[in-house]
Design goal:
Blueprint: H1 11-23, H2 30-43, E1 47-51, H3 54-64, E2 72-75, H4 82-89, E3 93-96, H5 108-114, E4 119-125, H6 134-144, E5 147-151, E6 159-160, E7 163-164, E8 171-175, E9 188-192, H7 195-205, E10 209-211, E11 214-215, H8 226-257, E12 263-264, E13 272-273, E14 279-283, H9 286-295, H10 312-319, H11 325-333, E15 334-337, H12 345-365
Helix pairs in contact: 1-8, 2-8, 3-4, 3-7, 8-12, 9-12
The protein binds pyridoxal-5'-phosphate.
Pyridoxal-5'-phosphate binds next to helix 3 and helix 4.
Length: 366
């Protein structure tokens, strides 16, 4: 079986964990601090605040940017549910803007249509490892005086015009879940260059407490463990290399699949470095393709089979009339193929062969 995702964990990560276990200091401590410093320096921000997950990072970032009950936050419907749910956690209202058909990322033109007097922020998602159109997005934020929060949970190391994602917003969030471009098991990070946002984020992560048993605000326990941070430090040092493998695998798949009927290969904007968290194609006949992949024991993913506004939770919250045709169409067509750095060259070739052949044969059967 070729899995659709696989973390690359080696001897170094194992040694790093054993060292922490041996030290007896397991919770947030020196490793977390070192990981935060290394991560901020990698992304290019003044601060990084480690959290227990990417979801926690989103919640912390929104609160630290001052999102309050009743505020509207514009986001994409074509993402993992955590992006929008974090807005609900703040008792604010997600307002969905449709996606760009080529990149699957939020469409700046549709953001413009959705801004109201209540809009406080944009929460954009760099989906599949490709940066959003940051020039248009930062312009909108300036025009309407909106906060910008980047969900970079799928985009560690991705760039827009030579600048790393996670450094554009008032705050940005990363996830270190095992399928991501780097992992800590579970974990997350908020990056920011604002001293104030960083200070608030640390407070919220720590039950609103700066001094032990003194609580000045409502907070949570969103801390990362030193065990996770020890893994993160090793993984961060390998990230560029792991991303390079993803990029090579994606290039090989695109070379082989270009021009195959019924398959649309990923579009990469000229001004970005796409780090291929997912290699996602549009497949005209997705069900047929799935059957062949399953027969050939090739893993795949559908990211995402239902846009957020069509989830039952959101229907019950009154989003039943919301129409976002491009996100809805993408949900019916997308399919992610394995692209992770543990793939061997023969495996990438086999994936391309099965996908290419399937579509051609289907066409002949018509
Ligand atoms: C776009 C996006 N946002 C948020 C999250 C949430 O991250 P986590 O699973 O670490 O809570 C994920 C990953 O699962 C994600 O892909």
């Amino acid at each position: 079986m070729i899995p659709v995702a696989k973390p690359l964990i080696g001897e170094e990560e194992k040694r790093a964990v054993l060292e922490v276990l041996g030290s007896g200091m397991l919770a947030q401590g020196a490793r977390v601090k070192a990981f935060e410093e290394a991560f901020a320096s990698y992304v290019g921000t003044r601060h990084a605040v480690a959290t227990s997950s990417g979801t926690a990072a989103l919640h912390v970032a929104l609160l630290a940017c001052g999102i309050r009950p009743g505020d509207e936050v514009i986001t994409t419907p074509f993402t993992f549910i955590a992006s929008a749910n974090a807005i609900l956690y703040c008792n604010a209202r997600p307002v969905f803007a449709d996606i760009d058909e080529r990149t699957f990322n939020i469409d700046p033109e549709d953001i413009n249509e959705k801004v109201t007097r209540k809009t406080r922020a944009l929460l954009i998602v760099h989906l599949y490892g490709q940066a959003c159109d940051m020039r248009a997005i930062t312009e909108i934020c300036e025009d309407y005086n909106l906060k910008l929060i980047e969900d970079a949970c799928q985009a560690h190391g991705a760039e827009y015009r030579g600048r790393r994602v996670g450094s554009f917003g008032d705050a940005a969030c990363f996830s270190f879940y095992p399928t991501k471009n780097m992992t800590t098991g579970e974990g997350g990070m908020v990056t920011t260059s604002s001293d104030e946002v960083a200070e608030r984020a640390r407070l919220i992560r720590e039950h609103g407490s700066r001094v032990r048993y003194e609580h000045i605000a409502l907070g949570y326990n969103y801390r990362m463990t030193d065990i996770a941070a020890a893994i993160g430090l090793v993984q961060l040092a390998k990230l560029e290399q792991m991303n390079a493998r993803r990029i090579e695998n994606a290039a090989m798949l695109s070379r082989e699949l270009k021009g195959v009927e019924g398959i649309e290969i990923p579009y990469v904007m000229p001004e970005v470095k796409h780090v291929f968290h997912q290699y996602t194609v549009r497949a005209e006949r997705r069900e047929e393709l799935i059957k062949k992949l399953e027969k050939a024991k090739i893993g795949y993913g559908i990211h995402y089979p239902k846009p957020v506004h069509r989830q039952r939770l959101y229907l019950e919250l009154g989003y039943g009339d919301v129409s976002l045709p491009r996100a809805e169409k993408a949900s019916r067509e997308v399919l992610s193929l394995p692209v992770h750095p543990a793939l061997k060259e023969e495996e990438v070739k086999l994936i391309a062969e099965v996908v290419g052949d399937v579509q051609r044969r289907v066409d002949r059967e018509d």
